[in-house]
Amino acid sequence: MRAILLLALLAAPALAQGRHDTAAPIDFGADHIELQDKANRATLTGNVAVKQAEMTLNAQRMTVAYTGQVIGGAPQVSRLDASGGVTVRRPEQTARSSYAIYDLNRRTITMLGAVSLTQGTNTVNGGRMTINLDTGRATIDGSSVGSQGAGGAGAVTQRSGRVTGTFSVPDRK
Questions:
Q1: For the CA atoms of the chain, what is the radius of gyration?
Q2: How far is 47 from 53, CA to CA, in rounded Å?
Q3: Strand partners, 77
Q4: Contact 138, 90 (CB under 8 A)
Q5: DSSP class per residue in 135-170
Q6: pLDDT digit string (tens) for 31-59?
Q7: Phi and psi at residue 83, in whole multiples of 5°?
Q8: Which portions of the chain are predicted below pLDDT 70?
Q9: Disulfide check for 99: which of 9, 112, 118, 151 has CB 3.0–4.6 Å away?
């Protein structure tokens, strides 16, 4: 119950900002890009920066998946998978994680691994966060995924944990 209340406090200003324009063009920059037309994807590496409307996404690596459909001479992007120091910035909010998936069709961003959401002096930390770009609502839980070292042969594991955070209180002088 506490987690729901805390999330409501964090999401309230985001809701007031209105919905994110997921139809806006996506501008990008990176140190290197590899186009894989037959696979309908592109891989961007090195200081990747993506901007859509008022949202920016930064990472060290990103795979851009697009449909085979071309409209107005442009392939239609359906998903961005980011890894390596991922940061998503929206007005008055910053989220950080190890990995992120921006599903343009569902209009959601899912962040995984050491997730931190900051809004002003309020912070919430967890293992996984999903942001609904239509409503601005963010849900965070303690679940996280990771990979085991050499002994685990690269197996993916799921761990459970807790959501933690700090909230500022009004000055009551």
A1: 17
A2: 20
A3: 66
A4: no
A5: T--EEEES-EEEE--GGGTT-EEEE----EEE----
A6: 999 999 889 999 999 999 999 999 999 99
A7: -150, 155
A8: 1-18, 144-160
A9: 112
